[in-house]
Each structure stands twice: as C-alpha cells, then as structure tokens.
Design goal:
Elements: E1 16-19, E2 24-30, E3 35-39, H1 50-56, E4 61-65, H2 83-97, E5 102-106, H3 110-120, E6 125-131, H4 153-160, H5 167-174, H6 183-191, H7 204-208, H8 213-221, E7 231-236, H9 244-253, E8 257-262, H10 269-272, H11 274-297
Parallel strand pairs: 3-4, 3-5, 5-6, 6-7, 7-8
Antiparallel strand pairs: 1-2, 2-4
Helix pairs in contact: 1-11, 2-3, 5-6
GO molecular function, one term: catalytic activity
Domain AB hydrolase-1: 35-274
Pfam families: Abhydrolase_1 (PF00561)
Length: 298
Amino acid sequence: MKPDWLDKKEYPFESKYIQLEAGKMHYIDEGKGAPIVMIHGTPVWSFLYRNLIKILRKKYRCVAMDMLGFGLSDKPENWTYKPDAHAANFEQLMEHLQLKDITLLVHDFGAPIGFAYAIKHPENVKSIVMLNSWTWSLSKHQTFSRASKYLVGPLGKFLHSKLNVSTHTLIKELFQDEEKMPEPIRQHYVKALGNPDDHVRKLACARELVGVSKWYDQLWSERQKIQDIPTLILWGERDKLIKLQALQCWKRFFHECYVIPFEDSGHFLQEENAEEIANYVSNFMKEESKKHELTHHS
C-alpha cells in the first residue's frame, strides 16, 4: 500500500518489495535496457531520483531501492542499521534481480554501500557514476571527539549535531541550498522518515551512521578492485556538507574518471539538475559501450 501522502504524479512508479530477514525492502525497477542501479544517501530515499528515472527509463532499466528505515521500506525497531548491514541488503537485492554489466550510480552515504558491492563483484559493475560523496576512511584524517570517532564523514558529524532537532528541521537544514524546492516536495522527505515531530535520534539515519570503522578500513584496503572501473563524477560545488577536498580525493582514486562540476548547485544535484545529469549519464554510458565494442572487436 502506498501511503496517502505520496504524490503519484510526482513518483509514478510501480512499487516492488523484497522480503529480507529484517523486513520488507522497497525498490522500483523501471524501463528496459542497460541497467542503472541508483543508491541513495541519508536521510533521503529513492524519491530523490524520481526525475532522473522518468528520463532515463525511456532508454535504460533503472533500479532504485529504499534502504531499510527509509522511504517506503520497513523501519524495523531492533535492526542494526550499520553500513555493512545495508550493504548486505543491497547485495541480496542484486542477487534477486540477477543484474550484470550495471552502471552503479551512488550519492552521499550510498557510495560505501555501492562500493562494497563493487569490490565483491567487480565483474558485474561496468561503470560508476558518482555524485557528491565522501571517502569512507575519513576517520583517519579528522580529529573527532571520542564519542563520534566512528561517525562517517561530514554528514555523520552534521547529523550527530542535530540529534535533538525534529526530522522536519533536519530536512529543512539539509536542503537549505534548495531555496526553490516546493513545500510539497520537501514534505515527501519529511514524511518518509516517519513522525515529523520525532527527534532525529530515533531515526535510522542517526543510528546507522555510527559506522563500523573496521568495515570502512576493510573496504579501503581492497579499493584497487574498483579503481580501474570507468567513472563519471558529477559534483555540486556549493555543497555545504562535503567540501571540494573530497572531490580531489576521488579524482586521485579513480584511474579513469571524468569530472563535471556544477558551480551553482549544492549537495542534492538530483533535485536541481535532473535533466543535465540524465544527459551526462546517457552520453557516458553510450561512450563506454562504444569503447567496449571496439576493444572486443580489435
């Protein structure tokens, strides 16, 4: 059942579910063609990709899940919400759908989730598209207080500082760059988190971000498995959460990467620049396919 606050014109997709041990995970699977798998960050959900999917599903198969605790997925009370558990759920969905040659599109906290999969199954990942995300071993370079030592990157620190605000305030602050965002759209982010008056500390997003440092370090140590995957990086330069240094890290990280900066956009490019992103993604995938064919024929 779709909740009554959901605008079906805005999000006109068929809901699908996969039954996991901890609960039902919601996802959408739209269109036909080469698969693009989109992973959201915190504390948003697949709704963030809606405009991108409306365009890309005409040529591609677009898959986007809501991590447990987010969007239209179950929000189990006593589940761990740690990043490695989200990554395991994502892997189950991929197994369920049996996708090959995917383009992995990641944003924010979705990057470590997606990269954990790519590191385990590099043969299934043809290319990567990355929007503003952090490097997951940031715990190494930053001096955190002991309590928040394992919080993941800048968004973790931001959320941790907001534990006593309401989910409504949190969304308002996260989307502060989006002055033009209509209130009904903003409400789709607030309502998807459950009760708007709840304190953020009750949310999955605040709990999950107390990450498992060891897990991030493990990923980092196996990074060479994905460093050669062709990557397109789309970056909003007005991001107040993730500074441009993170982009420099990613440029050094991927051996073959193309960077498109969006000078006037913030953290949520998908809200501001869906059409442009769709064009860049589409062109990038076409180029990669051509290159693929050439190497196979030569």
